[in-house]
Amino acid sequence: MLGADRAYLYKRTERGDLYLYIYLPESWHPSDRRAGIVFFFGGGWWGGTSKQFARQAAYLAQKGMVAVCADYRVYRRHWVKPDACVEDAKSAVRWLRVHASLLGLDSERLAAGGGSAGAHIAACAGLVPGFEAVGEDLSVSSVPNALVLFNPPLDVRMGTPLGERFGPDLGERLSLPNYVRPGLPPTLILHGTEDAVVPFSQVKSFVEQMRAVGDRAELFEASGQGHGFFNNSPWLERTLQEVKAFLSSLGYL
């Protein structure tokens, strides 16, 4: 992918190979133990491109992190349901941990993030048990240490705006409010107050739910903005500053 320093095959599937695109700091060395972040693109679990977060990845690499843009299976290209997307997100996190020494990565400072559907599967990796790929080493955790979520669908049960894409069973199993408990990864959510796809009230309620059990949850409110607001200036730059501050507070930058 344009701008990436390296690309690695992280998973073979019956419908295609999946790659991770790695952005490295200028002074990077394999013996480093740098914090990392992996981004998952949006596209409604239907489409999208791993290039979406190239700018964010390049920026964080310039600040000293190992940043990654991940491909994953989607319906348009691979004819899969959202549960396969979640499985791939977990596979990507696990692959990065297994190969931490190759990437100069600190496996205990690995964040996951994304936009819209990509944010949903990153959050599922952090909160939802199961959905692990057959044959992987489950002794290596697929749970990220922190979450950076841009306009994430969190409640996908029937009756919510996106629930019909999941159906009743899968929607219940992949709705994040069902899994809030103490000890979850620190989470930053960046969301537009006028989001017509994922209501702002949904993320506000989720943040309050996390805080109520003692988890760290921060919410950046983009006043008057809709879905995908972070892709363009000035919100691209403003959200990057918020992400930088959040990751710095965790000791990742």
Short description:
It is built from eight helices and eight strands.
Descriptive labels:
Rossmann fold; alpha/beta; 253 residues; eight-stranded mixed sheet; 32% helix
What does the model show?
The structure is a single chain. The chain is of the alpha/beta class. It has a single domain (6-249), classed as Alpha/Beta hydrolase fold, catalytic domain (Rossmann fold, 3-Layer(aba) Sandwich). The protein is 32% helix and 22% strand. The protein has 8 helices and 8 strands, in the order βββαβαααβαβαβαβα. It has helices at residues 54-62, 75-78, 82-98, 100-103, 117-127, 167-173, 200-212, 235-249; strands spanning 6-13, 16-23, 34-40, 66-70, 105-115, 146-150, 187-192, 217-222. Strands 1-2-4-3-5-6-7-8 form an 8-stranded mixed beta sheet, sandwiched between helices. Strand 1 (6-13) and strand 2 form a beta hairpin. The protein is globular. The chain starts with 5 loop residues before the first strand and ends with a helix. The relative contact order is 0.14. The model has no long low-confidence stretch (mean pLDDT 97).
